[in-house]
Amino acid sequence: MSYLLGIDIGTSGTKAVLFDGRGKTLESALYEYPMYQPKVGWAEQDPEDWWKAVCYTVKEVIGKSGLNASEIKGVGLSGQMHGAVLLDANDNVLRKSIIWCDQRSAKECRQITELVGAKRLVELTANPALTGFTASKVMWIRNNEPGIYEKTKKIMLPKDYIRFKLTGEFATEVSDASGMQFLDVPNRKWSAEVLDKLDIDSSLLGKVYESPEVTGKVNKPASELTGLAKGTPVVGGAGDQAAGAVGNGIVRPGVISSTIGTSGVVFAFSKDINIDPQGRVHTFCHAVPGTWHLMGVTQAAGLSLKWFRDNFCIEEKRVAGLMGIDPYILMDQEAERVDAACSGLVYLPYLMGERTPHLDPDARGVFFGLSARHNKNDMIRAVMEGVVFSLKDCLEIIKDMGVAINEVRASGGGGRSRMWRQMQADVFGSEIVTINSSEGPALGVALLAGVGSGVYNSVEEACEASIEVKTRQGVNTYMTDKYGKAYGIYTSLYNSLKNEFKKLENE
Prior knowledge:
Blueprint lengths: L2 E7 L3 E8 L4 E8 L11 E2 L1 H19 L6 E8 L5 E3 L9 E2 L7 H11 L1 H8 L8 H11 L1 H6 L2 E3 L1 H10 L3 E3 H4 L5 E2 L4 E2 L1 H7 L8 E3 L4 E4 L2 H7 L6 E3 L2 E2 H8 L6 E7 L3 E7 L11 E4 L6 E7 L3 H11 L1 H10 L3 H10 L9 E3 L17 E3 L7 H25 L4 E7 L6 H11 L3 E4 L5 H12 L6 H8 L2 E5 L3 H30 L1
Helix pairs in contact: 1-6, 2-4, 10-16, 11-12, 11-14, 12-13, 13-14, 14-15, 15-18
């Protein structure tokens, strides 16, 4: 039997999962770490926290499995996208990583657009300049921390920093690199034109691989710290969304995923390059070689419910701790007591600005329609509905781009909530299915590792061997009509408030 390891470097923690050759989970371990927000709209993490988490979780799963480490045929890496990790000439981290949800670089986005040209930027990178992307973060560091930038010898993404620590190789792969805004997405290579216009030396960026390709092997220091066998192949892996899509079987036309993690993502496969000229959804290289994907993103999906839990559900957390269950189970039960559409209460999930469809870093979260009749249960349900409405925004744009949608697969932490899945079915007007594995990104990169190490011949073969539909939830058409009215109010609110968001940001 062949065994494969998937490592997912997430925003709230790192998870290592050991799988057998048929995609069955054998062992898993999670290590959490903080996010730092020194100012409103800023978000940073310490790359050393990620490495400590990898060392702990990998050693934990190998130890619990009882396997000889040499039986692990390959390692795949998934990670939160867009973060900027800067190293000096001695390979030391120069500052905390500015991560994906940071919104400080609006000025740099305008600078990038002026230097490259708005139309040309989309032609080359398939996306407009966004605060979430790595390029604007790098430009912000150069503009505001020139001493740090002058010492920089390597720019890498979160999972690629872990690759460097595991193997000593300075490399990335196409799916994650697509979100840096330095990649020529149609041609799957660094864009010499963008780098030249932004005055970024190409030597600062690693070699670009396809996602299943072997990029290096575990070196001796990493072997001693993680318990992995020296020489174990490490493949390119994927950004968390492409990795989760592979782990969800989104490797052929017609099947899309709706993921509620910290962020929310609607993800669709595309054989050909397909770019939204307005830049409302992202077009990136997929982890399946020679293909692309479309991705609508809402910044604060699961983050919205976590924010509400941590600030207003202290009692639920306490009771859940005593019961030995997840507090979200109690929150689901409270939300179930409320009628759909929450008697006119609508939530905008813009806690960290918004990408799809507004591309507005100044947008902020809103409870609209709050009255004396509403209580905490209404607010919990409104948060959940608002997140689903934001995912519908993504879905509608992808439909308008001519993408066929035959099946929607729910994933992420929110995909484990039956209530949240039913909301999606009713709001989308489409059956929602789940698959046999809930490991998402970790499974996806483990399958990529299986391709790179020869366990499978292709990504499609790996998914066929490992993934099957487990549950199906149909549409309640009465609820679809009821949600449709609330969604109409939801979609009108941003336009009513966008100028006020701007004023708030400028104060």
